[in-house]
Amino acid sequence: MTYLRWNDERLSMAKNRHHDGAGPSQRQLRVGELIRRTLSSVLARGDVHDPELNAMSITVGEVRTSPDLKIATVYVMPLGGAGRAEAIDALKRNRGELRRAVMREMTLKYAPDLRFVIDETFDRMDDTRRLFSDERVRRDVELSRDDEDDREDGENGT
Predict the structure, then answer these.
(1) What is d(CA 53, CA 35) in angstroms, rounded to the nearest whole number?
(2) pTM for the whole thing?
């Protein structure tokens, strides 16, 4: 790390005091959401010159950008979850046209490289619902709630 000497104190250069690196910055989140909205509207309107892609209904669930905003990972899911591989192939084939559409809508220094992956969030939500509907899990959740209620009653002196 480079340091400046000033009045015998060491000050670090270019330290971002507003972001600690634990997650995406506000700028990454904002740009990701703008890219998501742009891609969603382009795909919904059928602005791409690929009849196969225009015939698909694709949900853009999330876009995560790299810290330098040069790479955008786009999480997509075809309607109903069927034809995942075909949807990814069609999106990859039309990556350049989609990238240009994003740049027309946004004012970034660089057009982000779009990388398309299947959004597994929906599958995880289904698995979680199935897990919580299991009788053993519901029984354990109810037992833990009863234990918490008993502890709260003991603390309140009732």
Answers:
(1) 18
(2) 0.67
